[in-house]
Specification:
This protein is α+β, with helices and mostly antiparallel strands. The protein has a single domain (10-109), classed as HIT family, subunit A (2-Layer Sandwich). It contains three helices and five strands. It has helices spanning 10-15, 56-62, 64-81, and strands at residues 23-26, 30-34, 42-48, 87-89, 104-109. The chain has a five-stranded antiparallel sheet with strand order 1-2-3-5-4. A hairpin with a 7-residue loop joins strand 2 and strand 3 (42-48). The chain binds guanosine-5'-monophosphate. Guanosine-5'-monophosphate (5GP) binds next to strand 2. Residues 10, 19, 21, 33-37, 45, 91, 97-100, 118-119 line the site of guanosine-5'-monophosphate.
Amino acid sequence: MTESATEPTIFERIAAREIPARIVAETDRVIAFHDIAPKAPVHVVVTTKQAGYRDVVELAEGDPALLAELVAVARDVADDLADGDFRLVFNTGGGAGQTIFHVHAHLLAGRLEEGSLAG
Ligand code: 5GP
């Protein structure tokens, strides 16, 4: 992963505590916080603290251990905030609803509407 020459992403700024968020879990490399516009009873963004991977495909290819860590944090949050069952949605590409090009999962849990997806 290389240093980005561009502006920090919103999610990097949340990880740096420059933008407030309701943080629910973190490790050295992963952070989870409530989505500002929830689409489910529990809707948490789980993301890497550093940018560098635009989407889940890049992360899976570039650092599969970090992807596994992100999934483990999602599981822990679903255990803490719901009954342990959850959906994990990675919008990948603008056509699929991705608006922030810093890899992140939408953790959706609680009583979900049939077919509901984030984005
Ligand atoms: P995407 O559309 O890229 O898959 O997901 C981006 C998500 O980030 C959206 O669900 C959006 O509501 C959330 N989001 C955007 N800006 C902020 C913010 O400043 N704080 C929080 N907590 N969530 C944000």
